[in-house]
Design brief:
This protein is of the alpha/beta class and 345 residues long. The protein folds into three domains: 46 residues, 434 Repressor (Amino-terminal Domain); 126 residues, Rossmann fold; 133 residues, Response regulator (Rossmann fold), CATH 3.40.50.2300. The two termini are 48 Å apart.
Length: 345
Amino acid sequence: MEARPKIQDIARISGLSPATIDRVLNNRPGVSAKAMRSVDEAIRKLNDQITETSGGDGTYDVILPRQAGLSTEYLAAAFRFHANARGMQLRSHFVERLDPGSLVNALARCADQNSAGIAFQALEDPAVREVVGHLMVANIPLLTVVSDLAGLGLGYVGLDNRAAGRTAGFLMGLLSRGRGPVAIIWGGHLYRGHDEREFGFRSSWRIEHPQTEIMDVTCTQDDAEEAFERLSELLKKEPRLAGVYSVGGGILGAVRALDQRQSKGEPCVLIGHNLTANTREHLLNRKIDALIHQDMSLIAERSIKYLLSTPDKQRAFAGEVPTQIVIRENVSSHLNTDLFRDLPV
């Protein structure tokens, strides 16, 4: 027993009387082996709690993109919920979407404010890597969420995005019966997670449907209006389009573009990411066929546990969350509305 929590705490965990615990701790006679094991186990549990919450005694930070859709709002709400539940002081920062300079400035400000640890949605940019390197030298715990930075040894909580893309490719093949061509809507490559999803989709498609063409729909800033315009243009040129995979935030624009086509009796499979109030409605109305979902509450909970952990526990951390497939028939079993009372669900 390297550390001895208070007898009252041991009694609360073990259910034994303080007198019995005192006899165990001081090796006095008249104590059963079962009581000794109970005290031992209670001390281990209490020590685990102490270790888990001793990673920093200051204020922590989470940095997320502004106006990035409901899924990001859900993630921010989940961070607030789990931080409050743990008594953690947490500052929330919102930066310009897909703007490396804005993210760099926010990271630097958090460091200047003596942050005890930072969780952030990463952008793949040299300037971001540069400031992250400085923060690592300063021994500030860092964690990426949803989209990561490879090769720096940072913790990460989110999907295995390559596997998520392969899952989308597999589903597209089933739902479209391998017909083509199919299109991928992507919003630029500052999110490594989007790169990995696209690569995973293409990899799966090349293996299963090597003769079927994949077409690109380039949409900057993950903008739904631009996705609508670009996909509408493609549909005019390629009326045979059999499926669309939206890697990021352009799926609502894709719904609008495909609405026009489907009104003419020409169905097209649509697969995207993340269950929100908007995508739920379109899933129920059969305008979206499937969603690859990540549990934002679980991401926030695991992120906070990581930030509060000591460095030895952080090194052993595994933050991958399950890749969930949401379709019309199982939509009611997803999205924990209790955590998002102030948001549309």
